[in-house]
């Protein structure tokens, strides 16, 4: 169940593509957890929208968003993929769509660390802060 939930968080935080479904998300989370040596605590950190407390948690996040194509090989956000999921999250709500675009515009081009794990955390931090500031609801789908 934890991996299913992390997949939802992935989708909800503008870090997946429009094809995101429960099974894909679950599989990605399981593969990434093993790949980066993350723990259940690292998974819980992401589920609670908390800052990553370990490098493994940061790398877990980076791995997942790469698997869904939202972080490219250069460690940058793919705006097209992010916009696809934003459309799903907004579910036809024009106000939420506009707020989500603000989040994306504020965070997609920030200067981030060359280390993709650190970059993923920097993107997460920016997106969560901007969403809190402007009222975009991250936990929907």
TrEMBL record:
> What GO CC terms are in its UniProt record?
extracellular space
Q: Which CDD domains match?
A: PBP_GOBP
Query: Gene3D superfamilies annotated for this entry?
Result: Pheromone/general odorant binding protein domain (1.10.238.20)
Alphabetized UniProt keyword annotations:
Signal
Stretch forming the signal peptide: 1-20
Q: Which Pfam families match?
A: PBP_GOBP (PF01395)
Which GO terms are recorded in the biological process aspect for this UniProt protein? sensory perception of smell
Lineage, top-rank taxon, reads Eukaryota
A single Gene Ontology molecular function, please?
odorant binding
Q: Please name the PANTHER family in this protein's record.
A: GENERAL ODORANT-BINDING PROTEIN 19D-RELATED, ODORANT BINDING PROTEIN-RELATED
Q: What is this protein called?
A: Odorant-binding protein 19d1
Source organism (scientific name):
Bactrocera minax
Please name the gene that encodes this protein: OBP19d1
């Amino acid at each position: 169940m934890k991996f299913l939930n992390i997949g939802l968080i992935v989708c909800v935080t503008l870090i997946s593509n429009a094809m995101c479904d429960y099974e894909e998300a679950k599989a990605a989370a399981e593969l990434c957890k093993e790949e980066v040596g993350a723990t259940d605590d690292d998974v819980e950190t992401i589920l609670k929208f908390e800052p990553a407390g370990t490098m493994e948690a940061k790398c877990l996040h980076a791995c997942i968003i790469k698997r869904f194509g939202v972080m490219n090989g250069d460690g940058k956000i793919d705006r097209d993929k992010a916009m696809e999921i934003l459309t799903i999250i907004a579910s036809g709500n024009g106000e939420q769509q506009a707020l989500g675009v603000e989040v994306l515009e504020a965070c997609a081009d920030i200067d981030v660390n060359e280390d993709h794990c650190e970059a993923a955390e920097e993107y997460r931090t920016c997106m969560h802060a901007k969403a809190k500031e402007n009222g975009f609801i991250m936990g929907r789908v």
